[in-house]
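Researcher: Here's a chain I'd like modeled. Treat it as a single chain, no partners, no ligands.
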Amino acid sequence: MECFVISTLPPVESGVAEDINVIVPSFCVTKPSFVYICLMVRKYTDKELLDRVKSLQSFKSIPEGYWLLGVRSSEDTPNQFDDKFYFFKGEEFILVTSGTTNPGVPILQGGFKRYNKMGAAVVVADHWYYKVWRKGKHLNRTTALLQLGAKIKVHRDGDMDTKSEATENIVEGYFGINFHPNTFKFDAKTTASTIGLWSAGCQVVNDMEKYRSILNQIPSGVGISYCLLNEF
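Model: Modeled as a single isolated chain. Structure tokens:
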């Protein structure tokens, strides 16, 4: 079923946004028979997020400089940007944006074979990855954060359905798990709704205004840490 977003409500409050996408099947645009509500990750206070990341077994310390926190939606609507990324400097919250921590459906349903026959890469959540990224060019085409520092743990999801699963098949290494947008145009103004081929395991932002703000604040040559949480 092909769907598209017909409206996106703005964040209800800065720093703890709750975005709601209203999706209608493309075959019933004029008189939809139903409306599917896609709820993103719930609202959190800064304290809730910081307390949670400090409770993880892999926690060492809060980075002094800039770092990123991802929260993976428990709903995991296939092919939709329903996750969130929080940008911090030390314990100071800067901004939150929508995105995905999961591969797109074309990758999950077999496209992963182009990269690894074991399955699509689904980054292991509830884990810290210290100094994992540094600024560079994703596919030599757009400014991004590249996996040039630490290794990343991923689940290999090879069942070829539309959902990302935390399988028992976990591997660790350098897989090119980058942080980038869902466009190669750094000055783009659009915000897309469908993941498609934009993620084969990468952490992908679909709000270019927020993405530019993040990347423009991060200096070159500095290791950026990342923590990924499951929604809690």
